[in-house]
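Q: I'm building a small set of examples for a reading group on sequence design. Run inverse folding on the following structure and report the sequence directly after it, with nothing in between.
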């Protein structure tokens, strides 16, 4: 029986992962943790804890006999640029605290399986941008991307040196309707749906031809759970796996929305996020995830657009 802790549970991925893991393992075996007082999503027991407080997290893990931790607390790319030191501290020390706890518990005969999200932000301007390989040049330019690349190296190090069973995915931009976007460069692909449903012209902060890898939330959650459920010997890569969903640019996404809402209009006003997006891949080669643990994306753009338009709650935006 698994006992699961999700740190950063009120964020975009956490909010949906809590529900999926509670369904899979039973709500009594899942703890949602975050720094706020509110249990926003309510599918599991909620505990207020800061991932930067290592002793408090270690106590929680010991007291509740936790066997799996999802460490999702982070500042994303756009927010990170506004507070680089805060982003570095949260993103690196948060991960290091969890890896250290996993090392200590492993040495005490109580292994802790860890999931940590990397991102397409770990790549940079000199990375081949089309069908970006699993192993390639990585020269991230945002503080968020630098923290993701460093985090990947830490994950591989803790696995090689201490045998920590840590697993990771380089998430593309994740599109979802249940929680608001969280300060990323790919947020436009969520905000555009809110504007379309409100009947507003969407002013896009990226230019029309800015193609980026994206993934719809159900595929992202399935990838995460499939990786965590894979037998350890199949998880050959312990830095982080490329996982692809779909790739499109704002002009193409707007056109897909216009098929359903012909009156929808988009205008372009690129800001500082354009520079971040320009340094990221356009599409990913995820063949290692396919070969090693059977990953295959399912959701296509038109299906995603239809589902978003049917489910986005404009009251939330
Ligand atoms: C961001 O835009 O910062 C994130 C990411 C791609 O990691 N969505």
């Amino acid at each position: 029986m698994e006992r699961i802790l999700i740190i950063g549970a009120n964020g975009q991925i956490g909010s949906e992962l809590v529900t999926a893991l509670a369904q899979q393992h039973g709500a009594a075996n899942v703890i949602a943790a975050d720094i706020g007082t509110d249990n926003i999503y309510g599918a599991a027991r909620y505990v207020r804890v800061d991932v930067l407080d290592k002793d408090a997290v270690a106590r929680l893990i010991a007291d509740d006999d936790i066997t799996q931790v999802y460490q999702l607390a982070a500042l994303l790319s756009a927010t990170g640029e506004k507070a680089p030191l805060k982003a570095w501290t949260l993103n690196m020390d948060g991960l290091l605290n969890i890896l250290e706890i996993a090392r200590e518990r492993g040495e005490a005969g109580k292994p802790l399986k860890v999931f940590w999200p990397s991102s397409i932000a770990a790549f940079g301007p000199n990375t081949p941008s089309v069908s970006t390989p699993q192993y390639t040049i990585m020269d991230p330019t945002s503080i968020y991307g630098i923290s993701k690349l460093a985090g990947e190296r830490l994950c591989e190090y803790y696995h090689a040196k201490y045998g920590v069973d840590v697993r990771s995915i380089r998430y593309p931009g994740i599109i979802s309707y249940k929680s608001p976007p969280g300060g990323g460069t790919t947020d436009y692909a969520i905000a555009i749906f809110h504007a379309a449903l409100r009947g507003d012209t969407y002013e896009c902060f990226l230019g029309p031809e800015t193609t980026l890898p994206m993934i719809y939330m159900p595929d992202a959650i399935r990838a995460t759970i499939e990786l965590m459920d894979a037998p350890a010997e199949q998880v050959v890569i312990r830095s982080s796996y490329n996982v692809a969903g779909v790739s499109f640019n704002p002009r193409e996404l707007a056109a897909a929305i216009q098929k359903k809402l012909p009156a929808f209009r988009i205008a372009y006003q690129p800001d500082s996020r354009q520079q971040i997006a320009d340094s990221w891949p356009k599409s990913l080669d995820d063949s290692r995830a396919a070969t090693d643990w059977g990953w295959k994306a399912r959701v296509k753009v038109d299906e995603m657009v239809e589902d978003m338009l049917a489910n986005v709650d404009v009251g939330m935006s």
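The mean pLDDT is 96.
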